[in-house]
Amino acid sequence: MSKKPSKTQKKEVEKQKSRKTYLFRIYPTRKQTQTLEKWLDLCCEVYNAALDERRSAYRMAGVSLSNEHQCAELPGCKEVRPELSAVPSQVLQNVVKRVDSAFDAFFQRVEEGQKPGYPRFKSRFRYDSLTFKQYGNSFNVRPANKKNRGTLILAKLGQVKMVMHRAINGTPKTAIVKRTATGKWFVAISVELAEEDISEKRLWVSEAAVGIDVGLKTFAYLSTGEEIANPRFFRAEEAALARAWRKLSKVPKGSKQRAHKRKVVARIHERISNRRRNFIKQEVSKLINRFGLIAVEALIVRNMIRNPRLAKSIADASWSMFFSHLLDKAEEAGRVVVRVNPAYTSQTCSACGHCQPMPLSVRVYECPQCGLVIHRDYNGSLNILVDGLQAVGRHSRVIPEAPGLEPWGVVTKE
Ligand SMILES: [Zn+2]
Fold first, then answer.
1. 356 CA distance to ligand 1 middle (Å)
2. Global model pTM greater than 0.70
3. Best label site of 54, 225, 290, 356, fewest CB within 10 Å?
4. How many angstroms separate the first and last alpha carbons of the chain?
5. 350 CA distance to ligand 1 centroid (A)?
């Protein structure tokens, strides 16, 4: 049965056309900051208005408004609210587009049989980014020279100081200007890579293959017998976070102190996500350097996080970020990542194929059939490797009890 590719799948295909995003810190002047803040407020207002309009149209008349319809209303809005004219029109159009995407994602998940939350209104604090499309028109980039480390030029705002710690390769497509919760500004410039840039990143061919089982006690277990230990810093940071939250809740709403405490909380969040990102980047690049084929489980992380008992450790270990980063880097380097069906990877004996239930509390696999005694996650990683090799036709052996091994997504670039 052939199914129409969903929007998210299409997005993935587009991503495979090799885009890369560069993140640079920018330093708007005080005046520019005020303007950007004002734009964010206005965009947030437009976002909520567009969302509200869609909801009402659906509730009152049972109609679904289209993106085109809502975009066509923007000039009318500007007549009523002249301030909107100060915001570059492409940025405003993108706001309406975001509402459209939120609804698309919502309907997509309904179709998949999930029960997603209805798209929600955004608060001023949460609305923190502006999208500039069309390089050369609504934004421009001037590389570093002797005098400065780069310049970002934005429509209706002008030149903004930017620290380009690395040169951009490829053609810029979009620029997303983002304010962090601590009041720093960044720009994410996404570029389309030229073919030669892609091949440059290719590593030498590696025949080595590895299966990776992500776990709770350890971050991951490799089929080589090695472990990647869990980053424990999150626990310590969590305590700091709880303290900061307690302090925040004691301060009266709307006070200056409140704004300050809110920033403290945001800073801790920022620190956690930076440390997590560094950890993942390091581990992924080690793996990519060593192995030509990497087999992982196709875990639906979103579902697992719903299970409250597992939530902390999983969020902590950041698997979903690990997987997506792994896929990105593997593609750039011309490595193969196979995602295998996770159904029996922990229950099957990696030596003889015997299958038995393995509750999470059981840390060691003891096979009654062949007598194998092996760490639970190590056993899993061996099974994942076998499944992965089989999925790409480099089979080693067949496990009789294993289910139909459909590779869930083989990412490869020839
Ligand atoms: Zn066995």
1. 10
2. no
3. 225
4. 27
5. 7
pLDDT tens for the chain, 414 residues long, are: 334 444 444 444 444 456 778 889 999 999 999 999 999 999 999 999 999 999 898 888 888 888 999 999 999 888 889 999 999 999 999 999 999 999 988 888 888 888 888 889 999 888 999 999 989 889 999 988 888 889 999 999 999 999 988 888 788 999 999 998 888 899 999 988 766 665 556 666 777 899 999 876 778 899 999 999 877 776 777 788 888 888 988 988 888 888 899 888 888 888 888 888 899 999 999 999 899 889 998 765 555 555 555 445 555 557 778 888 898 888 878 788 888 888 788 899 999 999 999 988 888 999 999 999 999 999 999 999 998 888 776 554 433 333 333 333 333 332
Angle at 406 between CA 400 and CA 411, to 5 degrees: 135
> Three-state SS for 113?
coil
DSSP code of residue 194: P
Please give the structure tokens belonging to residue 333: 């380097």
- What's at 359, amino acid-wise? P
- 396: exposed, middle or buried (Cβ count in 10 Å: 0-12, 13-18, 19+): exposed
Q: State which amino acid sits at residue 67.
A: N
Given a contact cutoff of 8 angstroms between Cβ atoms, the answer to whether 38 and 86 are in contact is: yes
Kindly compute the dihedral angle of the four CA atoms of residues 316, 321, 326, 329, in this order, to the nearest 10 degrees.
Answer: -130
Q: What are φ and ψ of residue 71, in 5° steps?
A: -65, -35
Q: How far is the CA of 176 from the centre of ligand 1 (A)?
A: 53
Ligand 1 midpoint to CA 335 (Å) = 32
Single out the residue of 226, 234, 305 nearest to residue 272, CA to CA: 234
The single residue listed with the structure tokens 């983002």 is: 178
330 CA → ligand 1 middle, Å: 33
